[in-house]
Amino acid sequence: MGIKILKNKIPFIITLFCCVTVAALAASVRASDSAKAAQTSAAGSPKQVIVLDAGHGGMDSGCVAINGAYEKDINLDIVKDLGALLTLNGYEVVYTRTEDISIHDDGVEGIRNQKISDMKNRLAIVETYPDSVFISVHQNLFTDPAYFGGQMFYTTNNSANFKLARIMQELFSELQPGNDREVKLIDNGLYLFKNTKQPALLIECGFLSNPDDAANLNTAEYRKKVAFTIFSGLQNYFGEEEKSKENTEIGEAESFLYMQ
Q: What is the 3-state secondary structure (H, E, C) of 5-20?
């Protein structure tokens, strides 16, 4: 009788043993991956590059706010504040401009030709860093002064663009109560973004035609808040990307083990 009972339990014992073994192997893989990640971090991994573009500059003032402020100046202030935050937190920051200038080639004459040269040079900077994230900062303008709030514009050139736009839009909605604007697709709409392959986002921070937006964006304090909002959006984006990568790696490891 005892032998018969034992025989009946043998398949269960074997199954239990296999499950425990697989679980142990999975845990071992996780531990090994964590150890490798720690070693890589300790060795010093390459910094994530962020290319920051302050729209317009020099003779190209961009939009002019109803209070007389120039878009080019607001863009540059936000980008400088954002760059400082990113640098402080371990990112490598590349700027298309850090002064009130156009970056057209020397010797180019005529405003239109200078603008074309400027845009080509900005694109060349972006393309020099294919593993970067590209952020271009601008301000909006419309005939109806009632329109307000930041809005994100993205392309489908990179599958991560919509995620980055969504995260950023949610944070701008928190910064600007009542902002219910939605992210907007701009495929083939803008020169700098038509062929940009890395994650890229055009951020219109507010409407300079709106009295409240214009007044806010004309203060250093609010521009710093905008910069911090963009910084937080990038942090959240990288956090989601890392979590997604980790879940994929664990899932692949466990699937492999259970197939054995």
A: HHHHHHHHHHHHHHHH
Residue type, 97: R
Residue ranges of domains in the chain: 1-45, 49-241
The DSSP letter of residue 252 is H
Q: Give the CA distances from residue 48 to residues 88, 129, 195, 230, in Å, rounded to whole numbers and listed in that order.
A: 13, 10, 21, 16
**May I ask the CATH architecture of the domain 49-241?**
3-Layer(aba) Sandwich (3.40)
Q: Which residues of 47-56 are buried (b: 16+ CB within 10 A; e: fewer)?
A: eebbbbbbbb
Please state the pTM of the whole predicted model. 0.79
165-209, pLDDT tens digit by residue?
A: 999 999 999 999 999 999 999 988 899 999 899 999 999 999 999
Look at residues 73, 197, 86, 186 and name the one whose alpha carbon lies nearest to residue 138.
73
